[in-house]
Input
Amino acid sequence: MNIEKLEKGDYEHFMLKEIYEQPSTIADCMRGRLNAAAGWIKVGGIENVEDRMFNAKRFIMAACGTSWHAALIGEYLFEELARIPVEVEYASELRYRNPIINEDDVVIALSQSGETADTMAALELAKEKGALIYGIVNSVGSSISRITDSGSYIHAGPEIGVASTKAFTGQVTALTLMAIYMGYRRGTIPKSYYNQLLEGLEKIPAKVEEALKCNDQVKELAQKFINTNHTLYLGRGYNFPIALEGALKLKEISYIHAEGYPAAEMKHGPIALIDENMPVIVIATNKSAYEKIVSNIQEVKARKGIVIAIVTEGDEEISKIADYTIEIPDTEEPFTPLLSVIPLQLLSYHIALARGCNVDQPRNLAKSVTVE
Ligand code: M6R
Output
């Protein structure tokens, strides 16, 4: 018995443990910030800098890797719910391209470690230019949390696996709380929808628990794809960043080439790759673009691609055309990323494990990229 074994508890790897912690880490992120019965959301970090947040001309979100994917979801959330213009930037690009950043901008940095060199440098630049800087960070007391004017910790606890899982859902939860709070206060969400969102969000930890029950099915499915060389992940709207995240998870721990794409972009290039050897993972839980995603799946099937679809429970239409379907619980559309990412985290974990890869410490990767 050593410390590592003790910390992993009954789990074989930190990554699996962290995937399974998500019902409680998401609940921890919401604790003290949301009460659906009483009808309130409270985000202390925003209250500290309320004037500048509410009067901002735009939000610029800066991050790297998985945190950048969370930021993309933030763009969808803030623009839809709070009607605030959002730009999402790779911190490594933002820092070197002489960007236009003004005093009435808010620059939001997302970082699990709070130590990523590029994100830190982008924030220093934004600070010099007079923007308000806000951090959505996991590591308490980290460099990014200290340099920011205000922020929200995600309270996910230490994340040891190099592949980020619970920090991602923590970041998305924090962004969701912020977007609903700001939307309601700005009058862009009607009271009835606000109450519906609060109730829906409060149920998410239990629904993540439910989504985790696909583990055995995903494990079995994973065995069919251990020798695959390429995969495509497709999603639309809120699930487009999940396609990117699913692909990144697979690449980094299983070393299988994977690309994430907005489903409708497929016909502008990647469709040429599809043949009977190409697994295509389609995140198909959207209500607003349901028929469109169905036709994307038909396009893949017409070229003999192998479709693995993530669907809402009870979906009958897609299960007739996809080769495999994995169900997740139903929820309000803005919350689907918190559920649809779960089977994709598990899929990459089981494929990597079956290929004999070092899941927690993949080659060439560091948990925190503190140098350029
Ligand atoms: O600590 P950070 O969130 O700033 O890290 C950013 C990326 O380095 C990180 O998300 C990386 O992409 C992960 N390995 C993804 O699983």
Observations:
- Residues 64-67, 111-113, 116, 119, 162-164, 252, 365, 368-369 surround 5-amino-5-deoxy-1-O-phosphono-D-mannitol (CB under 6 Å).
- The chain has 17 helices and twelve strands.
- The radius of gyration is 20 Å.
- The first strand starts at residue 34 and ends at 35.
